[in-house]
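Working notes for the structural subgroup meeting. M.R. asked for a predicted model of this chain before we commit to crystallization trials. I am recording the input and output together here so anyone reviewing the notebook later can reproduce the run.

Input as submitted:
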Amino acid sequence: MYRAILYLFLPILLGFGLIIGNQVFGQFGLSPLPTPAEVQPTYIVRIVPDASNQSSVTHYFPQKISIPSGTTITWFNDDPGQPHTVTSGDINATDSGKIFNSGVMPYTSFFLHTFNEAGNFVYHCDIHPWRTGVVQVSSSYEQGHHFKFTSGANLTQDAGQYAWTLNRAQNDRLLLNLEPTTVSVTESTPITYNITILDKNRSPVFSNQFFALGNDLQLELVLNEQTNKTSVYGPDFTDPITGAYHIEAPLSDGDYILRTEIIALGSKIPEQEIFDEFNGRITS
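Returned structure, recorded in token form:
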């Protein structure tokens, strides 16, 4: 349906910065985003206002992220009047742009890329080469009784007792993905999760309910030592609910347990408990 509309109005849409071939689209206030059905964006990185200014503190935001493989990132150009690119590799590298390349992104356009391979991916803007970003991707996972758990990359080796590690020396944020494996619902069925983070003494330090529409639940842990309270925001995309939620918290170094439970499938309460616990840690 979207492609039929896009081809019909292609001459008009190109003037607004929607480029089909390079997967660069314009923001028209449409929801969901006009992307092919098989591509479901889950995480947003923004090119912030004044990003073209070399003295600007922030360019891509977040500048450095850590995600599980299979995550689709959408970069939005929110810098008024300024074109930008999202180009893999270093600016002068021979393989620059080989993995992904948005081409020129006009203001209000966006670009999508799915990271299916593990690795450390740097990228830059061809127009403003001082603007760089990093995407760390992990393909490791842990299979629980009811969930397959994947998370962003940890660049140091764990002893194997941790399903996830957030290392402050590498990153201040970590994306987690929870895929139900023992329940099956339609894409239009809302799933209600209860997520609890326990410390090593099993005392809860965080608990909240989250909703996903017939799909995985993605949560990003964001460390913030400048606050004494925990805040939750998201999801990044809401129609359908495919985007990541973000838990910003002043968590200290130590061992933690992420307890994941499905408490409702649509309007139905599960007859038996559907939960798993995944050990993790925060370190410096």
